[in-house]
Amino acid sequence: MAERLYTIRGKSMTAAQVAEIDNPTEEEKRAFAKQAGLPDSALQQIEAMAEALGPLVKKYVTDSIAPLADRICQLETRPPVEWEVFDETKEYRSGVFVTHNGGMWISRSTSKGVRPGSAGQDCWRLCVKSGGAK
After folding, report:
1. Pairing mode, if any, of strands 83-85 and 97-100?
2. Which of 9, 23, 62, 107 has minimal CB crowding within 10 Å?
3. Residue 97's beta-bridge partner residues?
4. At what angle do helices 40-77 and 26-35 cross, to 10 degrees?
5. CA 45 to CA 89: how far, in whole Å?
6. Rounded distance, CA 134 to CA 131, Å?
7. The pTM is what?
């Protein structure tokens, strides 16, 4: 079935093309409504609903986006991932990545002098196993 066409600005357009017109004039709105079979009263009701709903939709979208924007700001201000070769003289806080014995480890808690992979400790977790890492 062929899509219905409307004549606006002297051109044949689909409803989707008509909807993309920036700042249509009142005459263009009325011409579209008439061709679509809508009486002027229906167009006025639609315009009144859009005017009433516009601020509500704007508030809803703004309220929904605000927490996301805040979260993006938090993520963007987070320091970059720290990564270095393990040095047992340094203190490592939670979330720091190190390499040791060919493996990559992440610190699960603050520690100093505890080698990644040493027996009886759980402040390091192996992320990538390679070489002699156990």
Report:
1. parallel
2. 23
3. 83, 106
4. 110
5. 75
6. 9
7. 0.41
**Mean pLDDT rounded to a whole number for the chain:** 88
Q: Write out pLDDT tens, residues 76-109.
A: 887 767 788 999 999 998 889 999 988 899 999 9
The domain limits of the chain are: 1-38, 47-78, 83-128
* Alpha carbon 87 to chain centroid, angstroms: 38
pLDDT score of 54 more than 80: yes
Q: Rg of the Cα trace of the chain? A: 32
Q: How far is CA 99 from the centre of its chain?
A: 33
23 and 8 in contact (C-beta within 8 Å)? Answer: no
The CATH code for residues 83-128 is 2.10.10.20
